[in-house]
Design brief:
The structure holds two protein chains of two kinds. Chain A is an alpha/beta fold. Chain A contains ten helices and 13 strands. Chain A is globular, with a radius of gyration of 17 Å. Classes of the chains: A alpha/beta, B alpha/beta.
Chain lengths: 274, 201
């Protein structure tokens, strides 16, 4: 049986030599967590199923630093590596793949140029293009929106881009469906309402998107405890959960979390502990 | 030395790095002439992507590949590099190399496609390729189609995703895995190391 995936996310500040992993709260305040490839190796040892590297600086001159981070990581870490943040074109994607990435994650560029999803899928395979969606709740009815019932009332979900700084007016559920049709391999779905809060994943958002598409959905935003991961993987059809701070600051190891999830009835790949 | 066929499908970085870790630097084979003259102990056919594109890019290598297979050189096909060894695929309705008898068909509608993630092996028979691998060990799969063999005896291990499918296949000197050993952490490296060891016999 296919296991659910646990994916540590490394938000990388590439403005310093070698880069460093940081963690933002609600897309803002920053805490320092470590050197990217050292954390990556540690997560692989702990049993992480995949890793995502997000360039949160994402300016043009930083792209080479990210390529170096991936090159260095891929020499010793043999699990799937996704690179996101600031990938705007097929040529940016190629730089990431040549460095050793297995997938690229695109958000702003896909919303501005949806054809990029198909271009990446055609050149590197449909598994290679992760479409990242940052979604925010908008309470109330609006014509043409997919409205979801939540404990706080009915809402639809709006896509944002530019790292959460601007809104698009685009319905996140409709966009996920379009992304699948265009050749996305995964949807990485982040709740902007929950990101950095440690209040748990947005269950209604994750359920609505994962029930609307047939490709895997990675739940993201709001993870503050292993219980939150258990909740989102049991109550929705998400295929994977992404978490950052609970792993970066040593609160839990990936192995701790996966054992807890397996005991809770979620199918997990566990490694023999040495 | 291990030779990797570069037929322009996806990047070779991962498999190159993984083989470097277990066996020393592999050589990349960019065209059929290089394959025909290759001085290697074994051939790896890596790959991601669509079957039709893969066969189109691989067809120039066919004659040299058949000669090497006939000479007894060990071959390891990975993912799409496994599927092209079969007779035919539903994907693009294209012919494969026919080195292993059987067809490549689409995963059932009952499951999310592609299968993307870690799934466990059920070992069907002993094989040197799986030395150190146990029933229930997990490997990383990414695929939408799977191989149906005419000769079940060639199936070494299976995995279950809506259907019980061949995950590891061996026929004489041809070895093939549906998953990506180069992306399957330590256990994946064990399989690559086993393959390299077999070539030394």
């Amino acid at each position: 049986m296919l296991a659910k995936r646990i994916i540590p996310c490394l938000d990388c500040d590439l403005g310093v030599p070698r880069g460093r992993v940081v963690k933002g709260v609600k897309f803002k305040q920053i805490r320092y967590a470590g050197v990217p490839w050292e954390l990556a190796e540690e997560y692989d040892r702990q049993g992480a199923d995949e890793l995502i590297f997000l360039d949160i600086t994402a300016s043009h001159e930083r792209r080479e630093t990210m390529a170096k981070v991936i090159e260095k990581t891929s020499e010793n870490v043999f699990i799937p590596l996704t690179v996101g943040g600031g990938i705007k074109s097929l040529s940016d994607a190629r730089t990431a793949f040549n460095a050793g990435a297995d997938k690229v994650s695109i958000n702003t560029a896909a919303l501005k140029n949806p054809g990029l999803i198909g271009e990446i899928a055609e050149y590197f395979g449909t598994q290679a293009c992760v479409v990242a969606i940052d979604a925010k709740r908008r309470y109330g009815h609006e014509r043409g929106r997919v409205v979801v019932d939540t404990p706080d009332g009915e809402c639809w979900f709006e896509c944002s881009f530019y790292g959460g700084r601007e809104f698009t007016g685009i319905d996140a559920i409709q966009w996920a469906i379009e992304a699948e049709e265009r050749g996305a391999g995964d949807i990485m779905l982040t709740s902007m309402d929950r990101d950095g809060t440690k209040d748990g994943f947005d269950i209604e958002l994750t359920a609505a998107v994962s029930d609307s598409v047939n490709i895997p959905v990675i739940a993201s935003g709001g993870c503050g405890s292993p219980g939150h991961i258990l909740e989102v993987l049991k109550e929705t059809n998400a295929s994977a959960a992404l978490a950052a701070s609970i792993f970066h600051f040593g609160e839990y190891t990936v192995a701790d979390v996966k054992e807890y999830l397996r005991k809770g009835g979620v199918y997990m790949r566990l490694q023999a502990r040495s | 030395m291990i030779a990797i066929i570069d037929y322009g499908m996806g990047n070779l970085k991962s498999i190159h790095n993984a083989l470097t870790t277990v066996a020393g630097s592999p050589v990349i084979i960019p065209d059929s002439r290089a394959l025909a003259g290759v001085d290697a102990d074994a051939i790896v056919i890596p790959g991601v992507g669509a079957f039709g594109d893969a066969m189109r890019n691989l067809s120039p290598f066919a004659d040299a590949l058949f000669d090497l297979v006939d000479s007894g050189m060990p071959v390891l096909g990975i993912c799409i590099g496994m599927q092209v060894l079969f007779d035919r695929s539903e994907e693009g309705d294209a012919a494969g190399f026919g080195l292993i008898r059987g067809d490549v068909v689409r995963l059932p509608d009952s499951v999310r496609i592609p299968q993307m993630g870690w799934n466990e092996l059920t070992i069907r028979r002993d094989s040197d390729l799986l030395a150190g691998i146990e029933d229930g060990d997990f490997f990383y799969f990414v695929h939408s189609y799977y191989c149906v063999l005419k000769d079940e005896k060639a199936v070494v291990a299976t995995t279950d995703y809506g259907v019980d499918m061949a995950a590891v296949v061996e026929k004489d000197n041809i070895h093939a895995v549906q998953f990506h050993p180069e992306k399957s952490s330590k256990k994946g490296l064990v399989i690559l190391k086993n393959f390299v060891e077999m070539t030394k016999c």
